[in-house]
Amino acid sequence: MSLPKLYKDVVIVGAGAAGMMCAIEAGKRGRSVILIDHASKLAEKIRISGGGRCNFTNRYTTAENFISGNPHFCRSALARFTPQDFIALIEKHGIRYHEKKLGQLFCDGSSQQIIDMLHGECTAVGIEWQMPSTIKEIVNLSSDRKKPGTESNFSVITERNTIETKSLVIATGGLSIPQIGASALGYQIANQFGVRVTPLRPGLVGLIFSADEFSAFKEISGVAIDAEVSYNGASFRENVLFTHRGLSGPAILQISSYWQLGKPLHLNLLPQQHAQQIFLLYRRSAVLLPNLLARYLPKRFVQTWCTSMLARLAIAAKPICDYRENELLLIADNLHNWQIIPSGTIGYKKAEVTIGGIDTLELSSKTMESKHTPGLFFIGEVVDVTGHLGGFNFQWAWSSGYAAGQVV
Ligand code: FDA
Predict the structure, then answer these.
(1) pTM assigned to the model
(2) Residue nearest ligand 1's atom 49 by CA
(3) What ipTM does the predicted assembly reach?
(4) Fewer CB within 10 Å, N- or C-terminus of the chain?
(5) What residues does the RsdA/BaiN/AoA(So)-like Rossmann fold-like domain cover (predicted)?
């Protein structure tokens, strides 16, 4: 039995944050739109985001909050659909929200409110849903333009039907959390059309360390310190959390998006003090180093850190007054510049995002359309634009979805 054939102005693959935003905008312009997703539950990533409260945007979003092969690429879309525009949508739906810190906006209730709002907006403009549904093949009809009367650019073959369309929007997101539906389909479609994809790796992710280097720190799993973590010019000051496998917490998640395998991270354990000044103040004191540092850092951390650091520097544990000047200098240097080399990340299973994606050189920054394949669009996380932690990734999904939605 042959499968039904239909025509839609716009086929969007991936009914997540970016896909739904694009559908709403295209629908408002009177386009016939179908959203296809292989998941049976709508927008699971939105549901689990922000600890269940969805950090849906950041008031202070700028291009500097994004990592991309072309740091300017995101500017145009971010300027045309701003955090304020999304806030206006939230307020129109009466969703109450609050700022947690640093401009990060969360729902007072639950992330389900955002999903319901987007679903409702889609319904209001007549979007069709096809989910769960698997994409079997995408045929490029524009390469077959000899056929007279062929208006469509693509034929999307699913297990249920064949849909011809002028505009194909790929909004399949990244590779993180495969257990709730992440797949590599977006990158595979890019490959099929000869669209370059930059190298992919997990971002906003916990870091792990080799057993011998970090064995002592396992015992302080659960302890958090306020530190500044730096890598190659990028630097974040927030909590660093010790876990049973390594490090996590906001400062580590942020730096993980920059960090490259095999390279060291630098931690300033006393970002608000000068260790040398502290030592100068206690120069004649018989206080032991860990006891002195415990006035500035959590005691359990200090005990473990001092034991490991002093062993590495081959310096004995003794009262401050007994240290030589050069020993104190070395200790101070280690406090402000503790170098650690992670052995890896905890991977896509736990990462919040995928770094890398569709090469921005391949796309129009105004419309997200492929420069070489007319009618093919990539939006959201599948593109090589990754936000910092704090609501920036959703803002990119809204802004890029909006940009494509104006032209599809
Ligand atoms: P998204 O992943 O939302 O949607 C992609 C859709 O494509 C999914 O519905 C998927 O099922 C579908 N799909 C995939 N493969 C397919 C296939 N082969 N066929 C059909 N459909 C397919 N960001 C933020 O700004 N604030 C936050 O609070 C958080 N919190 C957070 C927590 C956790 C645990 C994670 C993992 C991530 C976050 N994020 C976040 C990141 C944020 O969720 C993410 O960047 C956006 O959801 C990306 O939106 P997209 O629409 O691009 O992809």
Answers:
(1) 0.96
(2) 17
(3) 0.99
(4) N
(5) 9-406
